[in-house]
Design brief:
mainly alpha, 2 strands
Length: 476
């Protein structure tokens, strides 16, 4: 099976003028309605992730499994998404982002119905694996679709709307899940995905555009797709194993196998014209630096978000309800800041915005880490808001830069790498919290995590400064 694609001259970071002119045109007559399909799918995926954490105790009791075993209901989904993100992004470059999107939403809706009908733990995990396949499809190409719907000079505002949807959905997910479990059966947690999915399918089928035309023909490397899934699956599984079980002979052997597979995988990618792992895009300096910024930012963010509830309950002696309430200023501040960042990127270089965002984030983290045990709730709330402002100012410009710095025919690879960077950062952040807690227990481990997060935020900000000397792809 063959497909058409145009690769840029990576050594010169050159994109043909003909492609630029095509990129500036709207790909659909109803762009704002078309984007509703993409945002509905994003909302569906984010809701599923945030609600599941709240539902785990209920599902553990329902299926008669231990709390540690019930975590596989979450891990199975996350592992499959990580393994398949880049593979589906490449398939989108080949067969079309619209086809991958519609296939993914269909699978996700079907799997949601199967989750709701599950009568055993094994059936639930299997349905979650299927749901992960659907989630990987939609997450791998959602920003690629946004890019071919809107021209570069308006993409920042759309990516800001994306960030707002994610922040609001993530913030409301736990409360919504608690309300459903309080008044209804747990199956409604999965059934609520179905109307959102049907909206995305109906609008997407009618209005989502097809990939831009290309001039050369290349072959999809099926072996690379398989090696990508094996490598990232082993990598995430090994990181999680070390974080929770420490170093063991089995994990050392597993790590060695991961390195061997990784070396073979990268060597294969260097030999093919359109690699699944977008090595060709990493030759574009602003793309590679933005991916590095993303990984370090998400690692810092997860270090803070996972350790802060323990800090609030252990150091500040807050209740679970107070903890949940005081976590809200962070996503709320991100929601308010993201639209501003989406407009600022039209006039200000993303390197400047990213450095400023990470600087504000670092200030917020330092204020949280030095907060006394007798601080008022308001003192905690406004410090959380500062962190959220920093993330909101950083995230939208960084995501737009990653998406637009690749040639438009490689938007799938850029979109998939954006999602992979997020997942890797979140995994590393969670693993670091587990390692710190294992070494220090409850004796100040939460504060150590906040200081590590601050160091990573400064690293991300410093890396963002290096991007300033590179031409911003959105300012053509």
């Amino acid at each position: 099976m063959f497909f058409n694609i145009v690769l840029n001259d990576n050594e010169k970071n050159f994109i043909p003028l003909s492609l630029m002119s095509k990129e500036k045109k709207m790909s659909t007559t109803h762009p704002y309605l078309a984007v509703v399909a993409v945002l509905a799918a994003i909302m569906m995926g984010v809701l599923d992730g945030t609600i599941m954490n709240v539902a785990l105790p209920t599902l553990s009791k329902e299926f008669g499994v231990s709390p540690s075993d019930s975590i596989w209901i979450v891990n199975a989904y996350q592992l499959i998404v990580t393994m398949m993100l880049l593979g589906f992004a490449a398939i989108g470059d080949v067969f079309g982002y619209k086809k991958v999107f519609l296939f993914g939403v269909s699978i996700f809706v079907t799997a949601s119905a199967l989750c709701a009908m599950s009568r055993s733990f094994e059936m639930m995990v299997a349905a979650r694996v299927l749901q992960g396949i659907g989630g990987a499809c939609t997450m791998s190409i959602n920003t690629a679709l946004l890019r071919i719907i809107f021209p570069p000079n308006r993409l920042g505002r759309v990516m800001a709307a994306n960030a707002v949807i994610v922040a609001v959905t993530a913030a409301s997910g736990p409360a919504l899940g608690g309300a459903i479990l309080a008044i209804g059966h747990w199956s409604w947690i999965f059934l609520m995905n179905i109307p959102l999915g049907l909206v995305a399918l109906a609008i997407g089928w009618k209005l989502l555009p097809h990939n831009p035309p290309s001039k050369t023909r290349q072959r999809l490397d099926g072996g690379s797709v398989v090696m990508n899934a094996v490598f990232f699956g082993l990598l995430i599984y090994t990181i999680e194993g070390i974080a929770h079980d420490g170093i063991s002979t089995l994990l050392i052997l597993q790590g060695i196998v991961t390195i061997i597979v990784g070396v073979l995988y990268i060597r294969r990618q260097l030999q093919i014209p359109m690699p699944i792992l977008p090595i060709d895009l990493f030759r574009i300096p602003i793309f590679s630096m933005s991916i590095g910024c993303s990984i370090t930012c998400f690692t810092a963010q997860m270090l803070a978000l996972v350790s802060l509830p323990f800090f609030m309950q252990h150091a500040l002696n807050l209740s679970v309800a107070e903890t949940g309430l005081l976590m809200t200023p962070w996503p709320l501040a991100t929601t308010l800041t993201a639209p501003l960042a989406g407009r600022l990127i039209e006039r200000i270089h993303p390197g400047i915005l990213g450095a400023a965002g990470m600087g504000i984030f670092a200030i917020g983290l330092s204020m949280l880490a030095t907060l006394g045990e007798h601080a008022a709730l308001w003192d905690l709330a406004w410090r959380m808001a500062i962190c959220g402002i920093g993330i909101g100012l950083f995230q939208t410009p960084n995501n737009v830069t990653i998406t637009t710095s690749a040639p438009i025919q490689r938007s799938g690879g850029a979109s998939g790498m954006l999602g992979t960077a997020r997942v890797l950062g979140q995994t590393l952040g969670t693993a670091l919290v587990a390692i710190v807690f294992h070494l220090m227990g409850n004796q100040g481990g939460e504060v150590v995590c906040l200081w590590i997060a601050l160091g990573l935020a400064l690293t991300s900000g410093g890396l963002s400064c290096f991007r300033i000397k590179e031409h911003s792809p959105i300012h053509k």
